[in-house]
């Protein structure tokens, strides 16, 4: 015996985003998508805790990206300096 229709996690996230990010009312979104308002309220409460985790992960990733970009810039500058030094010493007669 089935307990009802199952929806994917992506569907739930997109439905909740319409309410939280785009400003539509819960009843409007529920009617448009053919789901109950109760389900949408439930999904919103479920995903509110997950959203904090996702934001924290995104923040951690942006910090990591910034560090890697800074390191790449430093290493690129060091490489350019070494290239110039190699050309200088290669052009010097002994």
Automatic annotation (TrEMBL):
Domain of life (superkingdom): Bacteria
SUPFAM superfamilies recorded: Homeodomain-like
Classification via InterPro entries: Homeodomain-like_sf, RD_transcriptional_regulator, Transposase_8
Stretches assigned to coiled coil: 58-85
Keyword list, A-Z: Coiled coil
GO biological process terms on file: DNA transposition
Keyword Repressor part of the UniProt annotation: no
One GO molecular-function entry: DNA binding
Family to which the UniProt record says this protein belongs: Belongs to the transposase 8 family.
Protein name: Transposase
Organism in which the protein naturally occurs: Rheinheimera salexigens
